[in-house]
């Protein structure tokens, strides 16, 4: 079942909580006033001539106040639902963005009660950046405890709490849709943030591994979704437009690798009918469990392999 992008306003719940808090404080003050009056009455009615009576028994310790019961962890709270997301972040040398991204998304998803784990797929080889292959690695390394993926750029933060990150049972759900993304507005765009079940990702054979350098891999993936006859969904009822996301990328500081070398210019618009999960070649150098700003994530340092007879543009020069 597709979750609606519409959510109840958060301010409504805050107002209810504030009203309950005022009532509780008023009731507590009344109890303290009654207790003070009762103590004053007992003190005045006591006989001052009678000697004080000493209790031979040992003094009884007052029981410590019970702490408020802690909220059950997500694994035990049924309101979080049965599904768990693998949030896959293709990554290379963008640590400033990562320090902001991980705690922000962790808090955002917790507030929406989305079970998740954040997988940062860190490319450590000497080839050009390959976003699609890193997402393929994230799928294969995500484990059996997750049942859907969020293909998520590290420089894109959701600002509207009504955005849906729930389980996309009916078909792939493009969170960063063209009418909401701050930069890309063409109709076939499926980059930035895309949710889909692991079953649907397997049906597409993942993403093509031929796209070294920046761009075009998500355009090819759009064709895969259509070929697999998967219905694509996008948010409805979101009125924040291009202010729905915060884009952290600074093009003056970090330029994108947009070079097209050798036959890459001709190949970039072609569909890769056989490549994907079935011909991915990689090695995991390390797997580290980190905490960034109190938020847990797993950094999987990965070396991709390149068949230069097939894609000589994986190297520059």
TrEMBL record:
Keyword set includes Transcription regulation: no
Coiled-coil residues: none
Domain called Galactosyltransferase N-terminal: residue spans: 82-165
Galactosyltransferase C-terminal domain: residues covered: 172-247
Record-linked InterPro entries: Galactosyl_T, Galactosyl_T_C, Galactosyl_T_N, Nucleotide-diphossugar_trans
Protein name: Beta-1,4-galactosyltransferase
Species: Oryzias sinensis (Chinese medaka)
Annotated GO biological process: carbohydrate metabolic process; glycosaminoglycan biosynthetic process; proteoglycan biosynthetic process
PANTHER family in UniProt: BETA-1,4-GALACTOSYLTRANSFERASE, BETA-1,4-GALACTOSYLTRANSFERASE 7
Main location, first listed in the record: Golgi
Function according to Swiss-Prot or TrEMBL: Responsible for the synthesis of complex-type N-linked oligosaccharides in many glycoproteins as well as the carbohydrate moieties of glycolipids.
Membrane topology: Single-pass type II membrane protein
Compartment(s): Golgi apparatus membrane
Catalytic reaction(s) noted: 3-O-(beta-D-xylosyl)-L-seryl-[protein] + UDP-alpha-D-galactose = 3-O-(beta-D-galactosyl-(1->4)-beta-D-xylosyl)-L-seryl-[protein] + UDP + H(+)
Pathway assigned in UniProt: Protein modification; protein glycosylation
The keyword Transcription appears for this protein: no
Cofactor(s) the protein requires to work: Mn(2+)
Entry EC no(s): 2.4.1.-
A GO cellular-component term linked to this record: Golgi membrane
GO function term, MF aspect, one: xylosylprotein 4-beta-galactosyltransferase activity
Compositional bias annotation for Pro residues: 62-72
Family membership noted in the UniProt record: Belongs to the glycosyltransferase 7 family.
Keyword field: Glycoprotein, Glycosyltransferase, Golgi apparatus, Manganese, Membrane, Metal-binding, Signal-anchor, Transferase, Transmembrane, Transmembrane helix
Pfam family, one: Glyco_transf_7N
């Amino acid at each position: 079942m597709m979750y609606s992008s519409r959510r109840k306003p958060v301010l409504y719940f805050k107002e209810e909580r504030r009203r309950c808090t005022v009532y509780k404080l008023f009731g507590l003050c009344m109890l303290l006033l009654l207790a003070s009056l009762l103590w004053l009455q007992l003190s005045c009615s006591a006989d001052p001539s009678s000697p004080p009576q000493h209790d031979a028994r040992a003094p009884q310790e007052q029981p410590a106040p019970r702490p408020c019961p802690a909220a059950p962890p997500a694994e035990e709270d049924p309101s979080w639902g049965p599904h768990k997301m693998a949030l896959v972040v293709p990554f290379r040398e963008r640590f400033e963005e990562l320090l902001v991204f991980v705690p922000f998304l962790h808090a955002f998803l917790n507030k929406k009660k989305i079970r998740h784990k954040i997988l940062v797929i860190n490319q450590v080889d000497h080839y050009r950046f390959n976003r699609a292959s890193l997402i393929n690695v994230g799928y294969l390394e995500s484990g059996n405890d997750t049942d859907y993926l969020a293909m998520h750029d590290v420089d894109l933060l959701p600002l509207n709490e009504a955005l849906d990150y729930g389980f996309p049972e009916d078909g792939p759900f493009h969170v960063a849709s063209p009418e909401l993304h701050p930069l890309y507005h063409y109709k076939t765009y499926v980059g930035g943030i895309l949710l889909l079940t692991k079953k649907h990702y397997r049906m597409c054979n993942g993403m093509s591994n031929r796209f070294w350098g920046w761009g075009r891999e998500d355009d090819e993936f759009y064709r895969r979704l259509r070929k697999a006859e998967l219905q694509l969904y996008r948010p409805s009822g979101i009125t924040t437009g291009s202010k729905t996301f915060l884009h952290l990328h600074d093009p003056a500081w970090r330029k994108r690798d947009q070079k097209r070398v050798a036959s890459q210019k001709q190949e970039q618009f072609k569909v890769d009918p056989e490549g994907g999960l079935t011909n991915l070649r990689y090695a995991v150098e390390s797997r580290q469990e980190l905490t960034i700003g109190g938020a847990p994530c797993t950094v999987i340092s990965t070396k991709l392999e390149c068949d230069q007879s097939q894609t000589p543009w994986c190297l520059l020069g």
